[in-house]
What does this fold into?
Amino acid sequence: DTEVTQTPKHLVMGMTNKKSLKCEQHMGHRAMYWYKQKAKKPPELMFVYSYEKLSINESVPSRFSPECPNSSLLNLHLHALQPEDSALYLCASRGGEGPDTQYFGPGTRLTVL
Amino acid sequence: KQEVTQIPAALSVPEGENLVLNCSFTDSAIYNLQWFRQDPGKGLTSLLLIQSSQREQTSGRLNASLDKSSGRSTLYIAASQPGDSATYLCAVASGSTLTFGKGTMLLVSP
It folds into this structure.
C-alpha cells in the first residue's frame, strides 16, 4: 500500500474559523511533510516531521500549526487564516533515514473567505 | 540555495509524438531526482526516481536520465497519448527536502 490519504478533500472557511486538515499513511514511513501549492506554482514546503518531531519549519506563519500525534498521522491546524492562504495543501511521506521517494496525498483544496 | 529550472514551461504535441522534457539544477550535491505528474487540482504522482549514482530509470513509455555533473535531467515520453496531458514536475532531493521546478504543462491532442 503506497497510499497517503488526506481529509477533507475540500474546505471552505471564514477568517475567524478554526479547522484542521488530516493526513494519514500506513507505509511505516517516519518522515511526513506539509506543502502549500498555489495555482500554476510548484509546491512550497511548510513543515517536515521526522520521527514525530518537527525538524523543519520553513518560517510559516503561526496561524498554521502542525501536529504529529503518531508516526501515521499528521494534522495541520488552521486559525485566523487570510484569503491569500487559499491553496491546495499537500501532505507527503517518505520512508526511512536515507533518500527515498516522497509519496504525496491527493491534497485538500482550501478556500478562505 | 538549490534552484531547479524546467524547460519548456508548456508544450503542445499531437498524439503519437515522442517528446523530451528538460530539468536543470544548480547544485549537483543531490541525493536523488524525482519526476512527478500532476493533473489539474490533484496531488502529485511519482513517475520515476533516479538515485544520484544512477544514470537513468525506465517505466513503460517513460525514460528519465540524470547527468549529475552537468546538473541536468530529461524525461522522455514515447508515443505520447492524450492521457499523458498533465503538468510534469521535476524535484531534486537534498537531505530530507525536495526542491521543485515550476513544471512543464503538457497537452497531447488526439
Summary: The CA atoms of residues 64 and 99 of chain A lie 27 Å apart. The first strand of chain A starts at residue 4 and ends at 7. The radius of gyration of chain A is 13 Å.
